[in-house]
Every structure is written in structure tokens, then in C-alpha cells.
From TrEMBL:
Role played: Catalyzes the reversible oxidation of 3-phospho-D-glycerate to 3-phosphonooxypyruvate, the first step of the phosphorylated L-serine biosynthesis pathway. Also catalyzes the reversible oxidation of 2-hydroxyglutarate to 2-oxoglutarate.
PROSITE patterns reported for this sequence: ACT (PS51671), D_2_HYDROXYACID_DH_1 (PS00065), D_2_HYDROXYACID_DH_3 (PS00671)
Keywords: Amino-acid biosynthesis, NAD, Oxidoreductase, Phosphoprotein, Serine biosynthesis
One GO MF term attached to the UniProt entry: 2-oxoglutarate reductase activity
Record-linked InterPro entries: ACT-like_dom_sf, ACT_dom, D-2-hydroxyacid_DH, D-isomer_2_OHA_DH_cat_dom, D-isomer_DH_CS, D-isomer_DH_CS1, D-isomer_DH_NAD-bd, NAD(P)-bd_dom_sf
Metabolic or biological pathway, per its Swiss-Prot or TrEMBL entry: Amino-acid biosynthesis; L-serine biosynthesis; L-serine from 3-phospho-D-glycerate: step 1/3
Taxonomic source organism: Aspergillus homomorphus (strain CBS 101889)
Region of interest (Disordered), ranges: 1-44
Protein name per its UniProtKB record: 2-oxoglutarate reductase
Domain of life: Eukaryota
SUPFAM superfamilies per record: ACT-like (SSF55021), Formate/glycerate dehydrogenase catalytic domain-like (SSF52283), NAD(P)-binding Rossmann-fold domains (SSF51735)
Biased composition (Polar residues): 12-41
EC number of this enzyme: 1.1.1.399, 1.1.1.95
């Protein structure tokens, strides 16, 4: 790829400068940055890398040449981390139409997105210099992960930084639905005084059924129990319950027992229309449904029918099968044909995909993902990558000024390591690690006693291997 050539060319420039001479040298992300505490305590990487006091600042490119494109109003914390590295950061508040995105992505090395930008194979094919994608959100289904991996493009996300925010939203929606607060508020806004207690409930003593007991489900479980609810959950794997929550063996078993059902599952073929007509029939009459996971999980026409028939007493939706690309009057029947029917329902909370939209969550996501991007660009570390093997080496130190770090991403086929080690074997390899994930393998090696001619020779010989996906040398 073109990005690989830029790696090498800029390495040559960097090798002639000392750390003291160049004020734009990248600072060590492991030494300089600390993630905001997650809902499970600490950074996603904090327990897995040990920064050294005299860490050497690797420079994969001249810092002024690294181009970063951030879309969808990525939080200021993430922008600050990337800007302080000396990268060229372009920031846009919205997503882009596909044709404009293709134009923008052609020359960037790093792109940061949230949930609305779709990075398909067609778009990624145009990304000549792209080495890494940052999803400043939980999900990564908006990226063609397989294509990215096969072309050496790492993908990072933030799997739990917004867990607490989503869990708190769900607790709020449970109470609002149980008390019909949305309807009463709308009536008051229209000048109608309607003081009623019929079919309004306390949540204490009710049963909450959580589908998907991951980071959000577990947080929600603790909050619900603290408010006096009984918690049951269904997951495809056996998990240790928090508090007195109980795992049930089947989805039907959960639906038949729960007063409130809430979905927290990823978007997969297995979860498409996971809650449909059959599942609504299995739920208790007068129960409630909440979906803050993915829009494809709930069959919306089936929900409309279940609410009109009185089977479901209320629902809260934060996600939808088709969502607008930006803010405005776009949530209409042109986007989803059932839009008008859905909005006509009583005791229904509709929110515009704001489960993780709190200042705290967005700050934490900005720090976590931006740190991962810097680590990958500057050090080659793939810890936390969702589509490549997780590989890391301890940092080089200032005492190792004549060392280089080789990153070789290649097809996982027989005989590759033998050929790579024949090339590296002409030099002193201080440390080396490799791992594979499916058809893609990732190798890192630190080599001592190198100069410009050595790096050029290494780069050209590795690039000549037929199994090569991408070669990077960090100096």
C-alpha cells in the first residue's frame, strides 16, 4: 500500500534528528495519557502495558504528515490527544455522503467515526494510505472488518466506556413507562390535567429481564437490584451473575417471567428480529419492552401490533432499523414506512440513539479510542483491536537509540515466518512476537544496531514477500 512507502520515507527523515532537536517528536502515549476510569475500573489497556520511565519516542512518520479525519462530532478529548501528537486533524460535526467520504478518505492515515458513518469495502478500497480506524462508540458493525483486516487496517472501538450512561437511561425509561410519565407530560403540555393511577406501578418488586449480560447488562443489573427489582438474564454463554441476579436457560423463559424486558445484544444475523411476533406472544400481558442495543433487534411492525392489542403496555426505543445521518426533521415515513404508526402509540418513549450520549461517556470514549490510535500509529501495538491479532512489545528506551521496530502484517500461510526470519536473521533481534487471527497474521520485532541503509534493506526485502499485506518500520 502507499502508506507503507510513506512509513519508510519518513523513517529516513526521522533517523537524522535527535529527540532533543525535534520539538514535534511524538510523546509516548503510555507515559503521557491515562484513560478516564471505565465502569469496570481503569483503562482497557491499563493492566496490559507497562510504560517505562525513559520510553523512546518512536516516529513512524514525520508527525506533521499524519493526516487524521474525525467525523460525527468526536469528543474534544479525543481530538486534543491526536492534535497534541502533531498530527494534522480535520474535524467534522456530521457524517459524509459516500461520494464525499471517498474523496476525503483517499489521503488520510487515520479516520475516526461513530455509528452513522459506513466504511464499506467500496469506500475502504479508495483509502490508499489508511492504516487504522477508530470507532468512537461501542459497535463496529458499520465497518467492513474483514476487508480492513485483509488490507492491514486495524480497527479499534470503546467497548464499555458508555456502559453506565446506557444503564442509567434504561433505569429512567423503566420508571417513566411504569408511571406513564411521557403521556402525562404530553397532556400537560397540551393543557390537559389528567391525574390517574390506573395501570401506574412502582418498579419495586417487579422482575427485570435482561437479554445480553455484557458490560451494559451487568451495570443495569446492579442498578435495578438497588431499586428493589428482581433480575433475570439470558445470554448465549454462561456468565457469573452480579448480586442476586439469575441466569435463565432460554429466551422464552425470560420473556414469560419478566415485567420489563430490555435488549443489550450486538447486531448479528442471529439477533435480527430477535424480538418479533412470536416473542411478543410469549411475554406477559401488560409487560414492557426497551431496546437500546441495535435497531435490527426488534421487529417494529410486530411491536406496533402488540401495543395496539394491549399485550405490551409500553415500550422505549433508542435505536431503529434506519436512522438519519444527521440531526433534523428526517425521522419520518420516508425513512421507515411504519414511522407514523409508531409515533401514534401511547406510552411509547422514542429517543434518537442517545444511550451513550452523555458528557462523561463521550469524554471517556474520546480518551480510550484516541489513545489506542496513538499507540498503534506510534508503537504498532494492537491491544484492543477488533479485527487483528492483539500483539504488543514493551517500549523501546532512550538507551536504544539505534533500534527499529518492524511491523509486518501478512497472510497466514505456511512458510511465511521462515522467510521473515531469514531476513531478520541477518540482524540482532532483541524481541519478537507474532500472532494470527484467521487468515491474517501480525508480527512485531525490535532490531538493534540499525542505520538508514539497514532499514531500507529490511523494508525492501519484506515488501518483496508474496504474503505481505503491509510493512511498517518505526524508528
Amino acid at each position: 500500500m502507499a502508506a507503507s512507502a510513506r512509513d519508510f520515507d519518513s523513517v529516513q527523515e526521522a533517523s537524522s534528528l535527535s529527540v532533543s532537536q525535534n520539538p514535534n517528536l511524538s510523546t509516548s502515549p503510555t507515559a503521557s495519557f491515562q484513560s478516564a476510569p471505565s465502569s469496570h475500573g481503569g483503562s482497557a489497556f491499563g493492566s496490559r502495558t507497562i510504560p517505562l520511565a525513559n520510553t523512546k519516542h518512536l516516529k513512524p512518520f514525520a508527525t506533521e504528515d499524519i493526516k487524521v479525519l474525525l467525523l460525527e462530532n468526536v469528543n474534544q478529548t479525543g481530538r486534543d490527544i491526536l492534535t497534541k501528537q502533531g498530527y494534522q486533524v480535520e474535524f467534522l460535526k456530521s457524517s459524509l455522503p459516500e461520494d464525499q467520504l471517498i474523496e476525503k478518505i483517499r489521503d488520510v492515515h487515520v479516520i475516526g467515526i461513530r455509528s452513522k458513518t459506513k466504511l464499506s469495502a467500496r469506500i475502504l478500497k479508495e483509502a490508499r494510505n489508511l492504516i487504522v480506524i477508530g470507532c468512537f462508540c461501542i459497535g463496529t458493525n458499520q465497518v467492513d472488518l474483514q476487508y480492513a483486516a485483509e488490507h492491514g487496517i486495524a480497527v479499534f472501538n470503546s467497548p464499555f466506556s458508555n456502559s453506565r450512561s446506557v444503564a442509567e437511561l434504561v433505569i429512567a425509561e423503566i420508571i417513566v413507562l411504569a408511571r406513564q410519565l411521557g403521556d402525562r407530560s404530553n397532556e400537560m403540555h397540551n393543557g390537559t390535567w389528567n391525574k390517574v393511577s390506573n395501570k401506574c406501578w412502582e418498579i419495586r418488586g417487579k422482575t427485570l429481564g435482561i437479554i445480553g449480560y455484557g458490560h451494559i447488562g451487568a451495570q443495569l443489573s446492579v442498578l435495578a437490584e438497588a431499586m428493589g427489582m428482581s433480575v433475570i438474564f439470558y445470554d448465549v454463554v454462561n456468565l457469573m451473575a452480579l448480586g442476586t441476579a439469575q441466569q435463565v436457560p432460554t429466551l422464552e423463559g425470560l420473556l414469560s417471567r419478566a415485567d420489563f424486558v430490555t435488549c443489550h445484544v450486538p447486531e448479528l444475523p442471529e439477533t435480527k428480529n430477535m424480538i418479533g411476533q412470536q416473542q411478543f406472544e410469549q411475554m406477559k400481558t401488560g409487560s414492557y419492552l426497551i431496546n437500546a442495543s441495535r435497531g435490527s433487534v426488534v421487529d417494529i411492525p410486530a411491536l406496533i401490533h402488540a401495543m395496539r392489542s394491549g399485550k405490551i403496555a409500553g415500550a422505549a426505543l433508542d435505536v431503529y432499523p434506519n436512522e438519519p445521518a444527521g440531526n433534523g426533521d428526517y425521522f419520518n415515513s420516508d425513512l421507515n414506512t411504519w414511522g407514523a404508526d409508531l409515533r401514534s402509540l401511547k406510552n411509547l418513549i422514542l429517543t434518537p440513539h442517545i444511550g451513550g450520549s452523555t458528557e462523561e461517556a463521550q469524554r471517556a470514549i474520546g480518551v480510550e479510542v484516541a489513545e489506542a490510535l496513538v499507540r498503534y500509529v506510534n508503537e504498532g501495538t494492537t491491544l484492543g483491536a477488533v479485527n487483528l491479532p492483539e500483539v504488543a512489545l514493551r517500549s523501546l528506551t532512550m538507551d536504544e537509540s539505534n533500534h527499529a521496530r518492524v511491523v509486518f502484517i501478512h497472510q497466514n500461510v505456511p512458510g511465511v515466518l521462515r522467510k521473515v526470519n531469514e531476513i531478520l536473521g541477518d540482524h540482532n533481534v532483541d524481541k519478537q512476537m507474532t500472532d494470527s487471527r484467521g487468515d491474517v497474521a501480525y508480527l512485531m520485532a525490535d532490531i538493534s544496531d540499525v542505520d538508514n541503509s539497514t532499514i531500507k534493506d529490511l523494508y525492501e526485502r519484506l515488501e518483496s514477500l508474496g504474503s505481505r499485506i503491509m510493512t511498517r518500520i518505526l524508528y
